[in-house]
Write a structure and sequence with these properties.
By secondary structure, the chain is mainly alpha-helical. The chain has 2 domains: about 70 residues, no CATH class; about 55 residues, no CATH class. Helix content is about 75%, strand content about 0%. Helix 1 packs antiparallel against helix 2, helix 1 runs parallel beside helix 3 and helix 4 packs parallel to helix 6. The longest helix is centred in the middle third of the chain and has 25 residues. The radius of gyration is 18 Å and the shape is elongated. The chain starts with 7 loop residues before the first helix and ends with a helix.
Length: about 140
């Protein structure tokens, strides 16, 4: 990460190389996905390079008939959904406190989908806080 801080194209190459090694390592599916999430978080790319990375990864998976394709795609979808819901909440409720954003980041995908529907009825931050409190109770 530090070596490629100023060289994002090289970072994309390294990220793809590491992900390929993950797939070829013999780890079980859950370990691959967890390590993939870590690498994705650690080796952030600008939007254009991120798009190129996902395209290259999809081609690699298709060529190798990877068993994790749907799981990796699910990670991408979840990441996009989290981003969309955060933007919607920020627009509807103004700026979200970091503590609330952190709670949202820990929601499961089904909870996140429910939040996407519930936020349509929110009028204040208190509505979001109440909704999040109900999620931690269940």
């Amino acid at each position: 990460m530090m070596e490629t801080k100023q060289d994002k194209p090289t970072r994309k190459i390294w990220k793809m190389r590491l992900v390929r090694q993950l797939y070829e390592s013999g780890y079980n599916q859950n370990d691959v996905l967890n390590l993939f999430r870590f690498l994705d978080w650690l080796l952030k790319l600008p939007k254009a390079l991120e798009s190129e990375f996902w395209q290259e990864l999809r081609i690699y998976e298709e060529e190798r008939s990877m068993p994790y394709v749907t799981s990796v795609e699910r990670i991408g979808i979840e990441k996009g959904e989290r981003s969309l819901i955060s933007r919607q909440l920020n627009r509807k409720l103004n700026v979200l406190p970091i503590a609330l954003q952190s709670q949202i980041d820990r929601l499961s995908l089904p909870q996140l989908e429910n939040l996407g529907e519930a936020l349509l009825d929110f009028g204040t931050i208190v509505d979001l806080e109440t909704w999040l409190a109900q999620q931690s109770e269940s």
